[in-house]
Fold these 3 entries.
Entry 1:
Amino acid sequence: MPTRRKERVIGEYETRKIGNSLVLTVPQKVGVPEKSKYLLVAKSDGVLEYKPVESNPWLNGEFDDIDFDAEIAQLNDIDTGVAVGKESVIW
């Protein structure tokens, strides 16, 4: 059974002009961290939808503290050998 997304009304806000852009305020009580990235989708019915941009853990530092060599050693059966066959193609 599909779950419904809980929506809550935060308030009503007006756009304001800053430079050549219009800005909508995001109040602190919503809990959005500073410098968060969002994708803006303008729907055909006039609705503006902001969706959080997925962060790449390989680039954002989330995996910086993981010792991948230790993880591979712990698995003990991972194949890290040399390529044999067609996967070793020189272009």
Entry 2:
Amino acid sequence: MSEIRIRRAQEADLPAIVAMLADDPLGRGREDASQPLAKPYRDAFAAIDADPNQFLAVMTDGGRVIATLQISFLAGLSLQGAWRGQIEAVRVAADRRGERLGQRLLEWAIGECRKRGCRVVQLTTNKSRADAHRFYERLGFKASHIGYKLDL
């Protein structure tokens, strides 16, 4: 019997989270899951964990981290001062894909955004991730904007 739970990530979860971030063609080129983890990962985790407008979530099964995402709660003036939930870094462990765990995790995250009073839930995904695009559209997300990034 499975014991799937969703909870706030703990520092001990960091190696599993970074390993999932590194486990795809894009992540392999930009992440480093070697142990011990580099200090910037630990520093970023500490900053996220200390910020009440950040929630780094993990999904576990029997204690093993099998999925993750991060929600940033953003205050804004547009939409009459609406809060937004920004979802990023959605990953499911390779050996658990196809079980609808990502859908379960996203539905949970949308519920958390509702609880926090968000009027919009938004996310970005790389243009090359066609499977992710279909996944998000199946969950009701619309590709309504064009996003830009500037690497510094």
Entry 3:
Amino acid sequence: MKKGLLTFFCGKMGAGKTTWSREIAQAQNAVLLSEDEWLASLYPHAIKTLDDYIEHAGRLKAPMKKLVQSILLSGTNVVMDFPANTVQQRAWFRGIFSEIQAPHELIYIDHSDETCLLHIAKRRLEQPERAATDTKEMFDRVTAHFAAPTADEGFNITVIAATSPRN
């Protein structure tokens, strides 16, 4: 049986990973899995700092990997709105698809800090519950760990640059 395609994203905080993931999932008729939604459901009001996020997101890794592999093995495409913003995070994604030899696509949304900060400011207005974590200070802390994907990592990468539609 043909395996599903795993699509996942790299991009700074505020780059548009969630927006793109929703659009691509709809276009592919894929299962969409959102880290933010899982964390909010399983750990309501528990994530107030970057350390809280790291701890709780880490708890999702093992069960999410098995779930995604099961869906891909059924032949269904999966779009993951989980960050692939560091080499370590991308290694986790590699384990998901490589262990079952499923196809993948890493979409890198390459936007400037200024564009990302504008998106974050807009998101704070639209989602007031995120105002405490969607700040320039949090952006700076998270971005300090950001590493753009490189060709030598061996992923099938699609780049969405600042001049692409849907900024």
